[in-house]
Write a structure and sequence with these properties.
Length: 313
């Protein structure tokens, strides 16, 4: 079907499925599958091919900086605009627990909530469902927001924090210097079960003050290397990522981490599709074009350590 779209700029899903059924009985069996065919083709037409081979990344990024004369924007701008267009929008029915009046104060922003199907569920206090809510979600093995550490033994917390709105770590600031990446170790204990001690490793990034003022790519790649090294040494436990809103800086870090994991295995970069998938449990993740661009250049920074991509050909 996509070959026909590219060759003829036309599409006939109904007759194509009918043709397939002459070759294979009951091909496309349900209405949901038939609908999926339409959705998948529509997305392919809207997004195009956003995959980049690792060894082509440097030259591709240069081209993505060029301004399209017709669109009057760069490819970074147009891709991010497309990403916002094709990203799923969850209905209000997905935020029942988050919308309880008793949970209002747990949401810093009224439009950034944890959905019922992806939220981190805290252990209930006195069987009260209200107490199970925290504005944190599970994304690609990244359960976000550090109040959850009281439930499970987390080996690590990776914190992406702003110098302006970092009250959650204010009490810790006296414990470390103001380097780009500070590291802390501390213990968390639930007074109800004092025998359970949780050992926490925290990485704190300073200077990431806004979504449009991203830090040097080298500092975040260094952070990821430190996180991975510590995680391997401590048993590959989960990572918690924190920022002021849960979608900007923390979303950018999580998306970059996910993209790098694929690069290591497949030598392919597809930032748009990675973010789109992560926006299902956390709508709005990665807020700006600057963050979208930053992820690409951070991947380039990572690959540059491999002798001009020699290990990725």
């Amino acid at each position: 079907m996509l070959d026909r779209v590219n060759a003829e700029s036309s599409l006939d899903i109904f007759n194509y499925v009918a043709y397939l059924r002459t070759r294979r009985t009951a091909m496309v069996q349900t209405e949901e599958q038939y609908t999926f065919c339409h959705d998948a083709v529509l997305e392919a037409i809207q997004c195009g091919n956003t995959q980049i081979l690792a060894h082509d990344l440097r030259i591709t990024l240069s081209r993505m900086e060029d301004v399209d004369k017709e669109l009057k924007m760069t490819r970074f701008d147009s891709e991010f605009k497309t990403l916002n267009k094709v990203s799923p929008i969850l209905p209000k029915a997905c935020y029942i627990v988050a919308s309880y009046p008793e949970n209002k104060d747990k949401n810093r922003y009224s439009d950034i909530l944890a959905s019922d199907f992806s939220r981190v569920v805290l252990t209930a206090i006195d069987d009260n469902e209200i107490t199970t809510y925290i504005n944190a979600v599970h994304i690609s093995d990244f359960p976000q927001f550090w109040p959850e550490v009281g439930k499970e033994t987390y080996d690590m917390i990776s914190v992406e924090c702003s110098d302006e709105r970092s009250s959650s770590v204010d009490n810790l600031r006296a414990s470390y210097d103001q380097s780009e990446i500070a590291q802390l170790r501390f213990n968390v204990k639930d007074l109800r079960t004092p025998e359970n001690l949780h050992k926490i490793k925290m990485f704190v990034v300073s200077g990431w003050t806004s979504e449009d003022e991203t830090p040097p790519t080298s500092s975040i790649i260094t952070l990821i290397a430190k996180v991975e090294r510590w995680q391997q040494q401590s048993g590959n436990g989960p990572i918690t990522v924190v920022c002021s809103d849960g979608i900007g800086r923390s979303g950018t870090f999580s998306a970059l981490y996910s993209v790098l994991e694929r690069v290591k295995i497949e030598q392919v970069i597809d930032v748009l599709q990675a973010i789109k998938a992560m926006r299902i449990p956390r709508p709005g993740l990665v807020k700006t074009t600057a963050e979208y661009k930053f992820i690409h250049y951070a991947v380039q920074e990572y690959l540059a350590a491999f002798d001009d991509y020699a290990n990725f050909k």
